[in-house]
Amino acid sequence: MSARTLIILGATGDLTQRLLLPGLESVMAMAESGGRPLDIDLMGVGRMAQSAPDWQAALERSIGSGPIRDRVRETARYASGDVTEPETLQRLFDEAPNSPVLYLALPPQVSESVVDALGSVRFPDDLRLAIEKPFGVDGRTAAALNARLARLVPESQVHRVDHFLGMSTVLNLLGLRFANRAIEAIWNADHVASIEIRFDESLALEGRAGYYDRAGALVDMIQSHLLLVHALVTMDAPPSLDPHHLHDSMMAALAATRLRGDPAEASRRARFTAGNVDGVNVPAYVDEDGVDAERNTETLAELDLESIHTRFAGVPIVLRSGKALGEPVTEIRLVLRKSHNRPAGLHGDAPPTSIIVSLTPEKLAIELDINGAHDPFTLDRVTLSTDFAKGKLTAYGEVIAGILDGDDTLSVRGDIVEACWGLVDPVLATWRSGAVPLDSYAAGSSGPREWASQ
Fold this sequence. Notes:
About 35% of the residues lie in helices and about 25% in strands. It is an alpha/beta fold. It has 2 domains: about 5-130, 3-Layer(aba) Sandwich (Rossmann fold), CATH 3.40.50.720; about 165-390 and about 415-454, 2-Layer Sandwich (Dihydrodipicolinate Reductase, domain 2). The strands form 3 sheets. Strands 7, 8, 9, 12, 13, 14, 15, 16, 17 and 18 form a 10-stranded mixed beta sheet that branches. Strands 3-2-1-4-5-6 form a 6-stranded parallel beta sheet. Helix 5 (about 110-120) links the parallel strand 4 and strand 5 (about 130). Helix 9 (about 210-235) packs across helix 10. The radius of gyration is 24 Å and the shape is globular. The protein starts with a strand and ends in a 12-residue tail after the last strand. The mean pLDDT is about 90.
């Protein structure tokens, strides 16, 4: 790895303190334990002035001790200024001792202003840009942002960050699917009756109204995270794990994806009311600080999809995500078709078996029906399960390691971003027209009662 200067815009923000710095810490700790060279220095940038001791104190809370970590922490610098101004950005590049990595840990509107300002700045040809989701607010703005980025640096030097694509998640799915003949042989419409990709959280708003109330569950989770997981689940095998091959396969899967019916038929939305989650009273979403009830922001969304690709043609696919739900469920579930040639005399009428890939914690479960212990003619349901090996890095550590290495495997390619918006934009337009009701559910419940029959 060549020497790099990591410049974090938004260094005093929650994202940097809670995720980026701990992720960077895990990268440095792994390099130390493996004896790997890691030549980086750190510049933090924020709008507000901050003293050197305060910046050092923030780093000490997030970065542990070790040869690399001590050096990075002790030499780290902090600068204040308006990062949407070309003069501020130029000063940062001029002061960077090594080739810069510019990490935009900023709200999307500010990030877009930074991208605009970069058009008037001199920077090295090998500049790497890291941008947090969401990428645009719809397909049109995402395409415009992609065009502006393309005028600055090559696509391979743009890292659109979606930490859901931590390397372990990607490799676990690819390894499971394509390295196991028994799994790959049934990973298709001949054997799979339905697919559900679900991320139900017990967490409520957690102080994120400033962003979440303008995004909602559909944009915050489904448009980005879950559609990317959907692509990994439904795509064909890439020729290799080269980023170009992997992204091409994901893009082909998204290009073959359609809404199952018109946008009103293929979508549902709901918002939580007051309730109790794990013994804690949760106020109604509309009563949370910073929420504008008139926006009709949903906290639970479902999207019905289908693929026109041969592999999963005709298989219903549901993507679902929500907040303040009673039981966290974060999984990919492939429901298998029932055996069509079970001999007469074998009893038992359990629901269809499933292959379940849990996302948090990362775990694999395969359900089977086998002869019962007390009556060999009656089938019993059993589950074979195993944990996926945990990566040494946090999800953000994996992202940062890829950016520093110049590996864009975990980045979201520009055309993939636009394809995801292409599926979600018609739904958002339909919701704004009022054609889909905003249902409600009590915090701590499993969702609206009327959805159970969907």
